[in-house]
Design a protein that fits this description.
98 residues; alpha+beta; four-stranded mixed beta sheet; 4 strands; 54% helix; globular; disordered N terminus
Length: 98
């Protein structure tokens, strides 16, 4: 029973972390980010700029891990396959500009 409750809590925490991260990414002022997770697509930032990047979330635990671990967790979760990008360099440039 406890395992089910902790799994449910983790899922709720991942959803909350996702919403918080999306709110933070809406503040992008230089460039555009397309965040994809399954059939969901979120376009964040300024459209029509010279800097465009995509981030594809493979596992919703990514959101929680990123919020709790920052840039170190971004690298760790990429290595673990929780997210990918067709152009990781563009993604890093976008985040560095903002």
């Amino acid at each position: 029973m406890e395992l089910v409750q902790s799994t449910l809590s983790a899922s709720l925490f991942d959803k909350s972390a996702k919403q918080l991260l999306l709110q933070l990414l809406e503040r992008l002022t230089d460039g555009q980010l397309l965040l994809r997770e399954g059939s969901e697509h979120h376009s964040l930032g300024v459209t029509g700029t010279d800097l465009y990047a995509e981030l594809v979330v493979q596992d919703p635990a990514f959101y929680r891990r990123l919020l709790l671990g920052g840039s170190i967790a971004a690298g760790e979760t990429w290595v673990e396959g929780l997210w990918s990008s067709p152009d990781p360099v563009a993604l890093v440039r976008l985040l560095a500009r903002n």
